[in-house]
Write a structure and sequence with these properties.
Number of helices: 7
Largest sheet: 5 strands, mixed
Helix content: 40-55%
Strand content: 15-25%
Strand order of the largest sheet: 1-6-5-8-3
Length: 188
């Protein structure tokens, strides 16, 4: 539900600290509600979340939003687009105040060519995404929306964040009206 990756965060923190002039990796901040990456645009940096929570979402042709995942510290964004040389597949938006390590594209590409640790971290990230996508798809078919909604409400409570009804519905793949019925069934 909330993806984090402490190993990747440690790796990038180490790279950041070892820089002499801090030009390959910089720290950027985003306010709640601000776009970090925008669907169909070319990313100017590869980013790794240092602090905060973002939502990763698609806007379909019918203008409906679908939240793929909530991403927290240690999650990398923009790397697939850079590897495949394509525009952003999804938009990433700050749910809370967010701080990222913004990695220059040229530096990222040089690391891919020379750093086995980065390549292993990326392979693990890609494998984890495939597993999570498969689990989520089967989970949504096996369980009612109430179960996933209960988990989403628990995440909101644990992280002390406010997730709008629109975002909850977009994550569950249902309408706000259906969400309201489900919340009523849960006694919320």
């Amino acid at each position: 539900m909330l993806r984090t990756n402490q190993l990747f965060l440690n790796y990038v923190e180490d790279l950041y600290e070892k820089q002499e002039r801090k030009e390959h990796i910089i720290i950027r901040s985003f306010s709640k509600g601000e776009r970090v990456l925008t669907q169909n645009e070319n990313p100017s940096k590869i980013m790794l979340i240092k602090e905060g929570i973002t939502k990763c979402f698609l806007v379909e042709d019918n203008d409906k939003e679908y939240i793929v995942e909530f991403l927290g510290k240690g999650e990398i964004i923009g790397e697939i687009e850079q590897i495949r040389n394509i525009p952003c597949l999804c938009s990433i938006e700050a749910v809370t105040e967010v701080t990222v390590y913004a990695i220059s594209i040229s530096y990222f590409k040089s690391l891919i060519r020379s750093d086995l640790s980065l390549n292993n971290l990326l392979l693990n990230v890609f494998a984890e995404r495939i597993v999570n996508t498969s689990k989520r798809a089967s989970y949504q078919q096996l369980y009612a929306a109430e179960h996933t909604l209960a988990q989403l409400l628990e995440l909101q409570k644990q992280e002390e964040i406010e997730i709008s009804k629109e975002d909850m519905a977009a994550y569950l793949g249902i309408t706000v009206r259906s969400l309201n019925r489900t919340l009523k069934n849960l006694g919320k």
